[in-house]
Amino acid sequence: MASLTTTTERPVWARRACSRLVAPAALVHLAPAGLLLVLLATLPSVFSRTGLLSLLLLASILGIAAIGQTWAVLIGGIDLSIPAVMGMADVLLTTRYAAGWSPTATFLLIAVLAVVIGVANGIGSSVLGLHPLIVTLATGAITTGAVLQATHGDTGGKVPGFVTEAVSPGGRTGPFPVPLALVLWVVLAAVVVLVERRGVLGRHVYALGTNRTAASLALVRPMRTRVAVYTVSALGAAVAGVLLGGFSGGASADIGAPYLFSTITAVVVGGTSLLGGRGGYPRTISGVLVTIEMTMLLIGFDLDASMQQVLLGLLILVLVALYGRDKHIAQRI
Amino acid sequence: MTASTVEPAAARTRAPARTVPYFVPAVVLAAGLVALTAVVNPGFLAQGGWQLAAASALPLVLLAMAEAPVVMSGGGGIDLSVGPAAGLISVLIGGIVVPRGVESVPLLVAIAVGAGALAGAVNGALVTGLRVPPIIATLGTYLVYTGLATRLMPTPGGAVPPALADLASGSAAGTAGVLLVLVLFAVAWQAVLRTAFARNLRASGSNDRAAYTAGVPVAWTRFTAYVIGGAITGVAGLLIAAVLGGADATVGPSYTLVAIAGVALGGVSLSGGRGGLLGAAAGGASLFLIQNLLSFLQVSSFVLQIAYGVVLLVAIVANGAWDHRRAREAA
């Protein structure tokens, strides 16, 4: 009773702030713009066509990889197999291309394998209520091991010219002077947001993430939804892996390793709740931009890699402490 | 109660369901792997192979144990920073404190445990005080600790006193030391299990809202879980320095995911409430033994990764099935 009285005595704005589970959307979407101003003020060299396009290209790769992470988090799960799928896509792209496969056949193979991994993650995290963290960790390890075994550790090869073109700031999409990766991200983002807002799958994702039992009673099939989500995740990771291959110009099975934590960072900095059911891809887009801008800012300050890591960690903590905090347990009863 | 309840004959004659402790599958798996290693590699028992294996397994076993209280405390509790924290402490010990002339082992243990508890307290304060989601709070400290370790020691080097280096040498005294560490942890955990903290830990992990309503100090319990995990991480960091005979800032982070896998393998529920240090230790030991066995058989490291994933999946499916069975018997 005493705690109730103190709650009512708090100012209105404080109560409103506490009653929210996720950050106000306006704050999240203003953050990338604000950080961009800081970036431009400190590093004027970014303010050029090439500079801005490089920023957006890096954001495209992270953004496409983070599609699945967003949905996995929305259903209350997590996908740790994203880096492994990215590595697989990258290695298959270069080795198959070097072996004389047509790009279509290569992409088809990558897509089929990605679907297999996604379905395995979906079924694995549904059967017997296994924790998705461990299931995706295991499928990721198996994928990386299988890729290295199949190629005998020789992941060298060539990247097709049009993939490199798609992620270079000078690239063109048809008649437009915009690289293909960026166009692809915009199109995929539009589809993802449409499915979230209007699609049946989107509705099921939010229902499952908010309350699994209630969702089942509302005839949402948890396993089917999870399979769909993790398949989307694996396909997004595969596309991001191909693009990353073009960006780096080479191949290795662990090329996606930095994306294990950066996809999670982008999702959480965007304000999507790790408890599931709240947030969405528009927030992740802002999270992606903030993550990339922070990284560029730290690199631009000419700090060595270890200090960049320390500051990135602190920045994540500060941002999430500002707007990604959990509710106090007394307010969740 | 019993007199008035009408039960079907079959149910009445069946013996009451016995609850099997959560750690049994993991301990059986670890024991089976030890037996398998002994069969495949006779030198494991005869020529002192196991002493060396025990010493090199210890950091991983301890880190899995460090992860356990945090995961058990529930609320999505997880500590991604165990690996980098242990790495940072090994750098602190092997790269800074020992080269400055501090060679007394008790003092080094105190420094390592203190630094580990401090790292755990930082995580705990972020999670319970600031209420940052555990996965993101410890991801932040993961990056900070990794960066700090590299900053303090860009290239591998450093030193440890002979008494510590001896721990990892496989000698009789060293093995006794390794076993002593394990026994001390077993005794300490048994003591902890007798306190109200253990009960509060299970309550917070099983259903934090019910626990809070019943007056359990959930936030304080979780904070303590992070501090305990941190103290164990400190010991693990000391042993990493002992095994390396110095310090290397790059080895720490790779331990994190293996430690979490060990916890899951050990039957500790990732959603909290169920588990303990014994299961986590057995899970961590199993992962080490698999790796040890496969490298002895000269299987390529690629297959090792596949095997690692498959074992993890099979083990958690088995643990899940075990749970289902228990739930059905209890119902």
Please give a structural write-up.
The complex is a heterodimer of chains A (333) and B (331). Chain A starts with a helix and ends in a 10-residue tail after the last helix. Helix content of chain A is 71%, strand content 0%. Chain A has 333 residues and is mostly helical. Chain B has a single domain, classed as ABC transporter involved in vitamin B12 uptake, BtuC, CATH 1.10.3470. The model of chain B is unreliable at 1-13 (pLDDT under 50). The interface between A and B is large, with 54 and 54 residues.
The third-level CATH topology of chain A is: ABC transporter involved in vitamin B12 uptake, BtuC
Query: Quaternary status of these chains?
Result: heterodimer
CATH topology of chain B: ABC transporter involved in vitamin B12 uptake, BtuC
State the CATH class of chain B: Mainly Alpha
Essential attributes:
heterodimer, A: 333 residues, mainly alpha, ABC transporter involved in vitamin B12 uptake, BtuC, globular, disordered N terminus, B: 331 residues, 0% strand
